[in-house]
Amino acid sequence: MLKKLIGKLFGFEAEIEQLQDQISQLSMDPVFGMWTRSAFLQFSQVMPRSLRVVVFLDLDNLHKLNDQHGYEEVNRRIRAIFSIPFRRSDLIARWFSGDEIVILFDADEEFARRKVDQLEEAAKQQGMSFHFQLGIWDVGKDPVEKVVDELAEKVLELKAWEKQQPR
Predict the structure, then answer these.
(1) 3-state secondary structure 70-136
(2) 24 and 47 housed in the same domain
(3) For residue range 92-145, what is the model confidence (pLDDT) as tens digits?
């Protein structure tokens, strides 16, 4: 209350509101309708200590699909895939590039696996697919980036192994 009064007295209130709007806009990725990597990392720093399920998901053939269908159509499909209901406490964010997405579940592993199954079905309906790895993050013990990096490495290994398999 005191901050608001001081803001009004010195004319900072409108500027503060504008900066809060900018922060909110920078935290959300408007293309996919999910959090940005930096917002995800900020949220993960203030989480209470517990075990959380993390999923690293890598969309398959995104560049090829963009070439075939156009960026807007592929973006629409990705938004459709991730429109399945999640808990408000689950965090979904783009990671480095457009084809890497991280989900932090505020639930047990069984719930997370069911959600990934739903995502796979939604992706199939949109003519898309993905590879993923699921892991456990002990909040407060290791940084979430370490867990995500390990999961990303496993996804890359899986994709490389699949490429070597005879068709």
Answers:
(1) CHHHHHHHHHHHCCCCCCCCCEEEECCCCCEEEEEECCCHHHHHHHHHHHHHHHHHCCCCEEEEEEE
(2) no
(3) 999 987 789 999 998 889 999 999 999 999 999 999 999 999 999 999 898 999
Which range of residues forms the domain containing residue 14?
Answer: 1-28
Q: How many CB atoms lie within 10 A of CB 31?
A: 15
Residue type, 158: L
> Do 97 and 66 reside in the same domain of the chain?
yes
In the chain, the number of structural domains is 2
The predicted model scores a pTM of: 0.81
Q: Count the Cβ atoms, other than its own, within 10 Å of residue 123.
A: 20
Residue type, position 165, single letter? Q
